[in-house]
Amino acid sequence: MNLQKCLMILGCVMALSACSGGVVGMIAQTRDHQGDLAIENGNLDEAALAYQLALDVAPEDEHARSGLSSVQLRIAEKLYHESKFDRAMQSLVIVGKYDPQSVRLAQLKGEIEDARTKREIVMTNYPTYHETETQIQHSYLQLREMDATIVAALKHFDYTYDSTALTDAIRYSVEFNAESARLTNRLTSFRNLVESGVPVKSHDTMLSSGTSLLPLP
Question: What is the pTM of this model?
Answer without folding.
Answer: 0.74
